[in-house]
Design goal:
It is built from six helices and five strands; from the N terminus they run αβαβαββαααβ. By secondary structure, the protein is an alpha+beta fold. Helix 5 (about 115-125) packs across helix 6 (about 135-155).
């Protein structure tokens, strides 16, 4: 993923690193977080995550919509509810897949700063489903905060593209 993203010119290699090793089951999961219009998002998915027009996306590994749903529940201070805490599927059948972060989820990310990010990251890292270090989850949350701010400013959506 790191090399694929760097070759595509989408993100600097420093933003693709993580602080904790991934569990073996998720080593092959690619994940890009990016801001775009619905049409551009579909083009991104169709081009296997190489749309150069996506503004400073974040390349990750080992993330699924479940992990983002868990983060949403933590941000709301509620137990995880799969009926509520799920990303909006745009293209969820097969591989690759594409989801949009619901606006109310993205809005919860916008005010997060410093210690708030660290507290949320510790709670998210502590979930048995994720098994990352708090610093690894803090990096993802910082990217989400940055991208959510850009999405709001540009009137666009925040998307999650994934592939095996």
């Amino acid at each position: 993923m790191k090399d694929r993203v760097r070759l595509a010119g989408l993100v600097p290699s420093s933003s693709v690193t993580r602080a904790a090793p991934l569990p073996l089951w998720c080593m092959g999961l690619l994940c890009d977080l990016f801001v775009s219009t619905p049409e551009e998002a579909l083009n991104y998915a169709d081009s296997i995550g190489t749309l150069s027009a996506a503004p400073d996306p974040s390349g990750r590994k080992g993330m699924t919509s479940l992990e983002f749903g868990l983060l949403w529940a933590i941000l709301e201070g509620r137990p995880f509810d799969p009926e509520r805490h799920h990303l909006a599927p745009v293209m969820a059948e097969g591989d690759p897949w594409l989801y949009r972060f619901p606006d109310d989820f993205a809005a919860l990310l916008l005010p997060l700063r410093g210690d708030q990010i660290n507290r949320v990251a510790a709670a998210w890292a502590g979930s048995k489903e994720l098994r990352w270090s708090p610093s690894g989850t803090a990096d993802v949350i910082e990217d989400l905060v940055r991208l959510a701010g850009f999405a709001k400013a540009e009137g666009k959506g925040l998307y999650f593209w994934g592939s095996v």
